[in-house]
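Contributing: when you submit paired examples, paste them exactly as shown. First protein:
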Amino acid sequence: QVQLVESGGGLVQAGGSLRLSCAASGRTFSNYAMGWFRQAPGKEREFVAAISGSGGSTGYANSVKGRFTISRVNAKNTVYLQMSSLKPEDTAVYYCAADIPSPGTYFRGSYYPTDALSMDYWGKGTLVTVSS
């Protein structure tokens, strides 16, 4: 069982910045492909950003590209989402999620997940509110 705990959400004015953190349990964190997703009120959960196990490959939704940066520190079992130039439409609950390979297998080095259905574990989420 892998536990994911997000932190760093809050209220920020449009144009501001926030950094979300996600701390993961487990001894093989560097094997986990990680992703951030978000869900706004009344909307479906959507992909935001993802990162490969080594951190060498990343992917972003078009809506956040150039404004958000995903990163990870495997020695700390932590993945981050740095959010800048925030907009009111970024208001949502942000979820950290992990895609974990089956025992005895490994993801290819460049793999990162973009589909919520691929994720095996989820955090409880952290609320980000951007005021106009």
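Second protein:
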Amino acid sequence: QVQLVESGGGLVQAGGSLRLSCVASGSIFSIYLMAWYRQAPGRQRELVAAVTSGGTTNYRDTVKGRVTISRDNAKNTVYLQMNSLKPEDTGFYYCNGNEYWGKGALVTASS
């Protein structure tokens, strides 16, 4: 059983930056794909970014060039660096690996 806990959310003005962290209670070394999803009010949860155990990354088109996902297997942590935040980036951000989900961190980018 792995528990995922997100942190680093908050309120920023549009154009600002935040770094989200996801700390796992157990090892993520064996989890091939770790990802960040987000869910805005009234909308479905959507994939933001993903990273494989080998470091290959994938991003949704609307965040490319502004967001960087990374993982530190030694620290059992996955990060999401978000720059040039836009109001449409607002929502709850969830960490995911296999069947495990965190409870989410709220990101609000005000215009």
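If you have annotations for the second protein, write them as plain sentences, like these:
Residues 16 and 84 are 5 Å apart (CA to CA).
The chain has a mean pLDDT of 96.
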